[in-house]
Amino acid sequence: MAQGLIEVERKFLPGPGTEERLQELGGTLEHRVTFRDTYYDTSELSLMRANHWLRQREYSGWELKCPGAAGVLGPHTEYKEVTAEPAIVAQLCVPAQETAPSKLIVYLQRFRPQDYQRLLEVNSSRERLQGTGHPDNSLG
């Protein structure tokens, strides 16, 4: 079975003067890399909502980033990177096949996008209420 890579990112915002300070310390720009990623998801954004990111990187192939080990503390995000296409397919398709959207959903997406967006927002709000003991839980 192909093993994925583990990526741990720590994001930071460089302050004003960071580049100048790095140069003062002897830092130089060794090289610049430019690439283009194309991200894929369902029309309902089911991958993004599950914190999964499927992309095809220009000149590199496919990659699926999904949450890594739970309980990792600190100012970073840990993702498992899956790059073997069979493993990506297995990660995305073996647990459950996505069902085709209803005719009404397709109609709203195509001809009433504002109403569709509102439906997504209401649905998202309803999901947040589940399990909280709120009286509106009966809506689900």
Q: How would you describe this structure to a colleague?
A:
It is a single chain. Helices cover 33% and strands 19% of the residues. It is of the alpha+beta class and 140 residues long. The protein folds into two domains: 1-99, Hypothetical Protein Pfu-838710-001, CATH 2.40.320.10; 100-140, no CATH class. Helix 4 (103-111) crosses helix 5. The relative contact order is 0.14. InterPro entries: CYTH-like_dom_sf, CYTH_domain, THTPA. One of its GO terms (molecular function) is thiamine triphosphate phosphatase activity.
Give the tags.
140 residues, alpha+beta, Hypothetical Protein Pfu-838710-001, 2 domains, five-stranded antiparallel β-sheet, 5 helices, 33% helix, disordered C terminus, thiamine triphosphate phosphatase activity, CYTH-like_dom_sf, THTPA, Thiamine-triphosphatase isoform 3
Fourth-level CATH superfamily of the largest domain? Hypothetical Protein Pfu-838710-001
Give the CA-CA distance, first to last residue.
39 Å
Shape: extended
What structural class should be given to the helix and strand makeup?
alpha+beta
Give the topology string: H per helix, E per strand.
EHEHEEEHHH
Strand order of the largest sheet: 1-5-4-3-2
What's the level 1 CATH class of the largest domain? Answer: Mainly Beta
> Could you say how many structural domains there are in total?
2
- What's the architecture of the largest domain, going by CATH? Beta Barrel
Q: In angstroms, what is the radius of gyration?
A: 21 Å
The helical percent reads 25-40%
Instruction: Give the beta-strand count.
Output: 5
> Sheet with the most strands?
5 strands, antiparallel
| Nearest-integer average pLDDT | 79
What is the number of helical segments per DSSP (H or I, 4+ residues)?
5
CATH topology title of the largest domain? Hypothetical Protein Pfu-838710-001
Low-confidence stretches: 132-140
The proportion of residues in beta strands is 15-25%
